[in-house]
Design a protein that fits this description.
alpha+beta, globular, single chain, three-stranded antiparallel sheet, 17% strand, four-stranded antiparallel sheet, 253 residues, 10 strands
């Protein structure tokens, strides 16, 4: 289900023809696909299907999730029409369609993004950033774990400080950890991210957490980067990736 449907199951597997509740790893929406349908090539998520009608707000949120910011939110026509915007990685001009992004094409063809693109089968990195200007906040994210990757340098240029990182031999592990942490913070605990706080836009605003937020109430009014990173490591352990990574390292050595 993870590999073919890009969905994280929320319950134990029962039967191939039974709906399997989980969360879409693209849009974080709740889904109930059947494994049989996914193995036959059907998408696991109705929200992400390339021909699903979208409101302007839904289209905007999907564009941000695919790492590009449209110039004009109202210019969205449908998922098969090009939508001019700016790449959130290299800040270059792009003109992708949401349908092509769903099918696996990248939003940006620049040389920078081609060499820094994240691949589930290649080594990946989970990171935690902190920004102390204005309202102090932190942000979780992922990138390719390779010397050629410039994602973290871009964040540093935008005013972020790299506080913690965790490498994975399998990029999919990093992606699933990031999704689990976001569900923990924003679904289970009900914290507000940048979008929910009404921020117009900032790099990765759906992944940001205020370090001091009275609305969260005790015991989460004030959190530290260390506490947030402890959440990340807790999800790594809960998902069993520590053992998986140890096995992979032993196999290589």
């Amino acid at each position: 289900m993870r590999e073919k449907g890009r969905a994280e199951p929320a319950t134990a597997y029962v039967r191939v023809d039974d709906p399997w509740p989980g969360t879409c790893l693209r849009c974080q929406q709740r889904v109930q696909p059947r494994l049989h349908d996914v193995m036959q090539g059907q998408g696991a998520c109705l929200h992400c299907a390339p021909n699903t009608p979208l409101t302007t707000q839904q289209a905007w949120e999907r564009a941000i999730a695919y790492r590009f910011r449209p110039h004009d939110p109202q210019a969205f026509k449908n998922t098969n029409s090009p939508w001019p915007g700016t790449c959130l990685n290299c800040h270059g001009p792009v003109n992708p369609s949401l349908g092509n992004l769903y099918r696996g094409q990248g939003a940006c063809n620049s040389r920078t993004c081609k060499v820094t693109g994240f691949k589930d089968s290649e080594p990946g990195l989970v990171y935690l950033l902190q920004r102390t200007s204005d309202r102090a906040m932190a942000k979780v994210g992922i990138c390719e774990d390779a010397a050629r990757n410039t994602r973290l340098q871009v964040h540093v240029r935008n005013g972020w400080e790299v506080v913690y990182t965790r490498s994975f031999r399998v990029g999919l592990h990093a992606r699933l950890v990031e999704g689990a942490v976001k569900r923990l913070w924003f679904d289970e605990r009900g914290w507000k991210n940048g979008r929910a706080r009404g921020e117009r836009w900032s790099d990765g605003y759906t992944e940001t957490v205020l370090l001091d937020d009275a609305e969260r109430g005790a015991p989460w009014t004030v959190v530290t980067s260390l506490a947030l990173w402890t959440d990340v490591l807790g999800e790594v352990e809960r998902l069993g990736f520590d053992l998986d990574e140890q096995r992979l390292e032993a196999a290589v050595n």
